[in-house]
UniProtKB/TrEMBL annotation:
Keywords: Signal. It comes from Virgibacillus salarius. This is DUF4367 domain-containing protein. Residues 1-21 form the signal peptide. It comes from the Bacteria.
Amino acid sequence: MQKLLLSVTVLLFLFSCSNEKSNDHTKNESVVSEGVDENASETLSFEEKIQKVIKANSYNPEDIVDYDLKQDYIYVFLYNPTNGLSPAILKNEKDKLVWIKSWDAIQTSSLSAGDAPIVTIVQPEDADVKDVKIFGKSARMTKFTIEITEDFSKEVKYWVYYSKQPDEVLDNITENIEYMK
């Protein structure tokens, strides 16, 4: 009789553990399906929302190396060895990220879209550059290492400067960049 009681108890215990796992699995499935459903996007983290928009616009979310928040705009910087540095601008509209614009394979450029702050991105070819000033002001550097093969990697550096001044964009931008070694 004790063996039967013990067997039933063990069976009930295993069954209850099995239900907990099943419930957890259901919760995970609902999170995944909510991630696909636009109406349920509030359950995604901010980074996951960025990745979702990047992927929906034919970029690889794994290529994201940095992003900056400026007012309602998100500047996303992607890098891959084939295309180089590619920035994208997203806008945060009522907890929904909207794709504004992107550029492929830039080196040194001032970029703008609508009323978004102007971003100047400098990626010098000279690896000895230690700092960059744009319009006399220090730019923020981002540096990372990309592994090309098992035994070869490449260090990538670029500088970013934001402005709301329309005269600090496009025209003669290279004349207003100072490289410090």
